[in-house]
Amino acid sequence: MNRYLLATVLTASSFISTSLMAADVSFPHIETTGIGEIVTSPDMAVFSVQVSEIRKSAKDAKSAVDKVIAAFNKRLEDEGVARIDIESTNITLRPEYQYKKDSKPELIGYRANRNVNVTVRDLAKLNSYLDGALGDGINSITHIKLKVSDESKFIEQARQAAILDAKEKAASLAKGFGENVGGVWKITYRTSPRPTLMRSMEMDSSANIESTYQDAKIIIRDQVDVVFRLED
Fold it and tell me: CA dist 193 to 190, 219, 220, 222, Å?
């Protein structure tokens, strides 16, 4: 049968890959892009805090920061956070100078900085951890990221939804043109994108954190490009 049918399906949020569009396919076929999307609620979080202190000597600056970090870590552990879920970065020390016009820079002390990343596995406790951090002497909450613990399960669900979407599109198109879908000739899959939030969780300590994270939803998407043969 001397015929050639090419159907390309695009969605508003994705495009068929260059390699798929450039494929030299000489037999009747349909190309589709399947999109899968799963919306779920976060059940855990990771937040980062920072301690910054300035003292006359580097030793005193380091000691001040270490004291705050020790108190913060102890409180978290007392409240049930596993030690493995508390990650403290290395301390940084640098001299601080005062600059005045027409004079040499004057050394006024040394600044010590240290960050701590905390994984929260009980989302209901996140807000109390954040409030406690500021009470422990933490200078700022620099980052909050909501997550879902069983991420791989939802990624697999999104992937299977994308595969089904590609099949359904191909079957619908073939039916509309009076054709039948045969086997799969080519599958193009790219690494699935990381889960995203419906709203930004980049905030400082002045934000209404509790209401924001409780209302948030996580979107997990996946995509697959498929070339289907058409039956002769």
Answer: 9, 10, 8, 7
Strand ranges in 56-105 using DSSP code E only, listed in sequence order: 86-88, 92-98
For domain 44-147, give the CATH superfamily. Answer: Protein of unknown function (DUF541), domain 2 (3.30.70.2970)
CATH class of 18-40+150-195+211-230: alpha beta
Entry field: residues in the chain? 232
23 versus 2: which is more confidently predicted?
23
Higher pLDDT, 68 or 102: 68
What is the DSSP annotation of 93-115? EEEEEE--TTS--EEEEEEEEEE
Decide: residue 205, CB within 10 A, 0-12 exposed, 13-18 middle, 19+ buried: middle
Separation CA 175–CA 188 (nearest Å): 23
Instruction: Determine which helix (DSSP H) or strand (DSSP E) holds 50, and give its type and residue range.
Output: strand 44-55
SS3 string of 16-43?
A: CCHHHHCCCCCCCEEEEEEEEEEEECCC
Q: Residue 141 pLDDT more than 70?
A: yes
| Rounded-to-10 torsion of CA 156, 162, 165, 167 | -90
pLDDT digits (tens, 9 = 90+) for 184-212: 999 999 887 788 877 544 444 444 555 55
Q: What is the tens place of the pLDDT at every residue in 32-87?
A: 999 999 999 999 999 999 999 999 999 999 999 999 999 999 999 999 999 999 99
If DSSP codes are grouped into helix, strand and coil, which group holds residue 225?
A: strand
